[in-house]
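=== Structure Prediction Worksheet ===
Name of assembly: unnamed complex
Input type: mixed (protein and possibly other molecules)
Chain count: two
Listed entries:
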Amino acid sequence: MNPALSQQLRNLAGLGVGLVAFMLYAVYFSPTQGWVFFFQLTVNGIILGSIYALIALGYSMVYGILKLLNFAHGDVYMIGAFIGFGVLTLLGGPLNPEIPVALLVLCMFVVAMLGSGFLGLAIERFAYRPLRDAPRIAPLISALGVAFFLENSALLLFGSQFRNYDGYDLISYNGIHVGGANGVFIQYLGVIVIVGAVLLMLALLALVRWTRLGKAMRAVSFDREGAAMMGIDPDRVIAATFFIGSALAGAAGVMFGLLFSQIYHLMGFLAGLKGFTAAVVGGIGSIPGAMLGGLLVGLIESWAKGYLNGNVSDLVVFGILIGVMLVRPSGLLGTPALQKV
Amino acid sequence: MPENTPPTPEPAPAGIQIGVDQWVEQADERRQRRGVGGRIAHLWELLPPAGKLAFLTPAIIVPFLPFMNEGNLFNYGVFILIYALLALGLNVVVGFAGLLDLGYVAFFGFGAYIYSFLSGTHNEKSHIYTHHWSAQYSILLAVVICALLGLFLGSSSRRLLGDYLAIVTLFFGQAFVIFTNTTDPYGLTNGSNGLANVDPLNFRAFGHTLTINSVKGYYWFLLGCVVVVLIVLWCIAESRTGRAWKASREDPLAAEMMGMPVNRLKIMAFSLGAAIAGLAGSVFAAAQTGAFPQNFSTQVLILIYAVVILGGTGSLTGMIVGAIAIIATNQVLDSTSPPNNARVIFYVALVLGVVLTLRPSWKKIAVALVGTAVFGLALHAIVDAVWSRGTSGQVTSGGFLTGVIRHFVLLPTNPGRLAVYGYLLMIVLIIVVVQLKGWWRVIAFVPTLYLTAFVWENILVENPAVTRYVLFGALLIAVMTIRPQGLFGTAKVEIV
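=== Predicted Assembly ===
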């Protein structure tokens, strides 16, 4: 068997054993809360995780193609959330929308994705393309500058107060009860988020696998110079990658706004870090890995919030990231990096 | 690429004999001079022009600082020196060893918290800590603990490739922020309130006590620290270790092949940088007699990076000049300082920017500046006649520029959304200006400059504290793309 594949299978088996063990512990041995609590946390974690997965995809794609950590990605997500909010306000606000709600939500997603996609293009053009051949550290510092610039521009333009999507007013407070009235509660909004995220991810997978652009992306990420010799314009492919990754982040921003209502200028920082964690845990550069990683980070955060303490959940996520990077730097589904000389 | 073409040999000036190298002759002449004066002159000759300037600038500015009043001395003098110290430490990591340390500010924080814990009185959550250690011991311990933490964090880079190290350190820094802000084990950090009641620097030895409790005292103490650290780093940079750092930065593989312990070198750089940050942190805690989590936020990290990047990674003197430029700007753009200073600096910088971008051609500079002036006055007159709300706003705070601004910049009474659109349009225009070439660029400069002034007067000058961070973010991008070596760094030789 292919050694990389067997490594991935072993990773997944280990992960499965760990998850099952934790589930058994949580359901049977957790002293105060029963299985309902566990599954409620799990559902919340999956909803949160699909947002992280969308963010992680952008990180992972950009890293796969450019070997660049795009620190500004979290802030693109923040800008996406603000664009969605702008559309919502423009079309009448959450309480009395001027057009049908489904259309309004669709409009928010489309405009936010386009807006953050073009923002990603601009960032690539001005902050990263001039540094294509610079030492590795230069684009990282530039990315730091972009992140800081976006954050503070948003603070300057939108102010430091929270903006409220009121997603529950807009769509519905209701949901599905599983296992009776005291059972697990799944909001319709959460269902929408999960379905939307899954659709976007499937579209991305199809694009990468079956279109000419996707083929070009894979070629460029495999060997940029070789791809250029075959007549692929790497700059265009990289720009397209940034556009798609940023558009996914914008969609994630709108989802976050709908689900948690409150958006503000610093929301991108932590979300970006967690998206990055997800990308690394799944294996950076791998698209299915980013999805799996996002789900895992969401679950872990939700469980840590439930069983430990809201304050330390971030620390737990970061601790897991550092642990993964020390033990398995290539992540769950990544291929171990061979250093070419 | 034009940069890579070999320089065309200059025609030999008349009067030079073939076979006699002028430089060698002059060097021989220089070597003739003896004594201390000759030695100094010799060293001075060795410095590149940028280095000379870097030496001269602090030498000119520093003696004036003690004559400022206490508040200004603290805001400018002490802060500049603290950041110079921090930048020198970060320079070891980023400049010498070429590693990206995004958790650097956590070491600064650790230094401050350790000093505060060891020399101060804290009574939080029914835990009472009254250690009044003598400053030399608590500073020493803070430095040593920070160095050990750096060792610990750096050893994570053994298995991680370059980028991953950046992220591990970023998480370390973030974990520090969460740790100090939200968790408060045993009342150690006092959460987001921070630690107050920290002793000033109390040096007790042999029955004598030397207490530094004036701003001026801290200023001179920090100046001493900076000078000592500068000398130590200069010696290290020229030593075997320093050369090994540079080698492993340029090409880790080749360095490894030449027998250099690259991993150990990385960890050493990390640890040294962390130790210097710990020193800066402990003195900082003593100077403000407290340690608060907001002193160690991401903003501070960006500020330190702006200093290092502007000064030029790898250049020691660049750190000093960078600290003076960045921290002075930072403090002028503070919300407590009068906005007119910021305004003067802004317009001077704007004009300087135009001059620098269109440099060789004076005609273009004149067209851009005069064009902007005419355009602004005309637009103002038109808008005044058509839409009176557009010009009826007030200039924020007075000053001698008020009259000019009132007749030049559009000041709507309630800018709000207009200013937001102006800001976005300004970014678009700046992008356009970067794209255009030749005279088109000069023409595009006119509305861009005008819009910049409009945005500045309507939104930026009211939020100077945010504006400065926007500017520092833009500065990082601009320096990296236009001049990656900063002001005083050495340009990298392209290896093909």
